[in-house]
Amino acid sequence: MYRVGMIVPSSNTCLEPTTSRMLSEIDRVSVHFARVPVTRIGLDPAADRQFATEPMLAAARSLADAGVDIIAWNGTAGSWLGIDHDRALCATLAEATGIEVTTSTLALLEACRAYGVTRLGLVVPYTTEVTERIRAVYRDAGIDCVAQEHLGLTDNAAFAEVPEARVRRMVTAAGTGGAHAVAVVCTNVFGAAVAAGAEAELGIPVFDSVTATLWRTLRATGARVPGWGELLWAGNVRNEFQRTAEALLDATGADRTTLRIDLPELGLQVDLTAAEALRDGVRSIRRDASLDQRRLNTVEWLEEHRELLVQTNFRDDPLPPIALREVYGVRAQMLGPVVRGEAMAGWLSVHSLREREWGEADRKSLHVAVDAIAQILDDAEIATRSLHPVVAE
């Protein structure tokens, strides 16, 4: 049994029943709650004191008595108090309990990182002042809130009284302006139930705070939870894809790494990247779907040879597309095929903005990354089967 501990704002009536419903078909996970006094949201000192360390520490210690495997502060105060506030809180609680600790705000930021979100639609029940502070905090974290919907409320208990239909309209309105995703930033708003429907309408992920917190606490289990939106179903795989791309970037010293893969069950196809890691100042290629990737010379070469394509320059065939060279400035690359059964499901790309030799260590790093993607896919299939066991007839 994997046990999750959650610290809950005392006036919150949303996150516990919502979390229980999301886990209703997962029989190997239990969730345990401890409350701390929180009744009003504002930017004044009295409101800030509700999120002091001492009550959180007492709650964390009580959860530790239950032998939980991870603890989450299931509240979004870090979204206006600052990311460093939540990181310091996690460090303090982890040191006191010896248990991994996270928060709702950190979970939301990890979801944005896993999906490459830098333009966010924001949905909150808070006042204008709190909303603007959240936008500033997220801007400092590299995320621009390009659209926002707020209700002007301060009473935490009142947040849970907002009808789901109103929340859905807010999410839809916030999913404009070129947003890469929408985030419902409050754990006492019933946003989880509207996420899947809104995603189908908008064509972008919807990260509800309650959902994001549960997603982050379940990471070690590999569980994929259907029916509650993109993040709980595919977020673990997307996160591992992103981590692999980032590790490959570091190992090779390249300027950009990408993963393209066909996984219809996760809504992924090769004309858009499933993961991308960039050096500072390097232009993103993540959402450019202008090319038919399977018909590129380099990809056709991969399909035929099923081995690494290593190009120190682009003087010889197979030539990459003009757009890669002229729009994105790539001068050298390595490509590694991801093969599943008889099919080439996708490939990893390693880009350099200058001509360069790719050494043996670089090639080995790409092989390691390709193997890592295969392992992620294997693990995801195991997790899926564990949610839907086969019953012998």
TrEMBL record:
Domain GAF: 241-376
One Pfam family named in its UniProt record: Amdase
Coiled coil: none
SUPFAM superfamilies (UniProt xref): GAF domain-like
Gene3D superfamilies: 3.30.450.40, 3.40.50.12500
Superkingdom of the source species: Bacteria
Name this polypeptide is given: Aspartate/glutamate racemase family protein
